[in-house]
Amino acid sequence: MTKTDRETDKEDLQIMQTIRIGYFRQVVISSIFTLTLIMAAQVASVPVVFAKDKGLSQEIQFDLLVNSATKDMDAERWEGAVQSFEKAMKLGVDLPGKFHFLYGKALYKTGSYEYSLSSLTIYLTLVGRSGEYYEDAITLIVDAENKQKEEARRTSESKHKKTEAASETEDGMVLIKGGCFDMGDIFGTGASDEKPVHTVCVGDFYLGKTEVTQKQWEDVTGSNPSKFQCADCPVERVSWNNVQDFIKKLNEKTGMNYRLPTEAEWEYAARSGGWKEQWAGTNDKEKIGEHTWYGFTAEGRTHAVAEKTPNKIGLYDMMGNVWEWCSDRYDKKYYEHSPSKDPQGPPEGKSRVIRGGGWRSRDKGLRTTDRNNFIPTSKKFTDIGFRLARSP
């Protein structure tokens, strides 16, 4: 008996539905499989977060981290490798010998030579000569030791850079290597014109090893205005304007370009290159007398320069004996708007800055951050002099 057309159509419809169901089932299975692969890849790329979220054992987390670190090393991402190794170490699992070698190599590549040596030494201790990376570890250890020595040498040179540079003297000048420092009342013992403390950077400059002496003044000008006559004592009773005349004649005579130091240069030099020194050469009030003549120790007069202990960069009498003129005009509030690079002082002002204190001064006036000022035409005081500066 033949099938009717309706029966035939019904059978065809059932077949088509079966095919569609199988197709969709295959698509779903394929999608699930693809999603599983993507998630697995994500686990490998972010092992720490994913592992913790899923509560994986410490051993599995360790393996994931080491695997990630190894991939970073292959790609020469040394900092990333070190971070993964250090996270792995915090898991508290036993570390195999290979781990110490890989960690030591990554540390070496980041410049952490001391820690690299430690890790590589542990590796050699654990595996001995039979270790897979024995030869490589020996090579890295030798290189790390050499790098460490070179780094130590450079660090030592850097620490003594200012002192070594200061030993280069020329025509009685000391080369001061420039730098940045916090200028002003860093000890909290100063007046309002020493505030606010602000960062200042100065370039290299030369500064007189001593204050200008009476002999040096007389050699240039032919006269000596000082009250306390003494060839090697600092010249005094000189106004700021007198000093400018002296410098002009000196430059004409020598062909050099001498000048007065700026206030920032003076403080930087007095503090031995910007160090935290309350008095030039010391932070001990009881030791001020080792560095200068002042107060009752001065016996009522100036004394020959360079008879006391210099500060750490070889400058004598940066406090006491005589106050020292600076090139800047004085402004009590200048620190509030001073530029950070080589400040030259305010553009206007009736008085000029003097620094360092003189033979009459007490300890407060001798401080490296203390500011004072005087009218540039006055020359009547026996405790005001100067020292020369010039640019390289």
Care to describe what's here?
- With 392 residues, the chain is an alpha+beta fold.
- The protein folds into 3 domains: 5-45; 48-159, Alpha Horseshoe (Serine Threonine Protein Phosphatase 5, Tetratricopeptide repeat), CATH 1.25.40; 164-390, paralog of FGE (formylglycine-generating enzyme), CATH 3.90.1580.10.
- It has helices spanning 5-45, 47-54, 58-74, 78-89, 97-109, 113-127, 134-159, 161-166, 214-221, 240-254, 263-270; strands at residues 169-170, 173-176, 179-183, 198-202, 205-208, 323-329, 352-355, 372-374, 384-385, 389-390.
- The strands form 3 sheets. It has a 4-stranded antiparallel sheet with strand order 1-2-5-10. Strands 8-7-6-9 form a 4-stranded mixed sheet, covered by helices on one side. A two-stranded antiparallel ribbon has the order 3-4.
- A hairpin with a 2-residue loop joins strand 1 and strand 2 (173-176).
- Helix 2 (47-54) packs antiparallel against helix 3 (58-74) and helix 6 runs antiparallel to helix 7 (134-159).
- The N and C termini lie far apart (120 Å).
Neighbour order of strands in the largest sheet: 1-2-5-10
- Amount of helix: 40-55%
Order of helices and strands: HHHHHHHHEEEEEHHHEEEEE
CATH class of the largest domain: Alpha Beta
Average pLDDT level? 85
Q: What is the makeup of the main sheet?
A: 4 strands, antiparallel
CATH architecture of the largest domain: Alpha-Beta Complex
> CATH superfamily membership of the largest domain, which one?
paralog of FGE (formylglycine-generating enzyme)
- If you compute it from the alpha carbons, what radius of gyration comes out, rounded to the nearest whole angstrom? 38 Å
Low-pLDDT parts are 1-8, 18-25, 27-53, 161-169
Tell me the distance between the termini: 120 Å
- How many helices? The count is 11
- Number of separate strands: 10
Number of separate domains? 3
Backbone shape: elongated
Q: Strand pairing plus helix content: what structural class?
A: alpha+beta
Q: Per CATH, what is the topology of the largest domain? A: paralog of FGE (formylglycine-generating enzyme)
Strand content: 5-15%
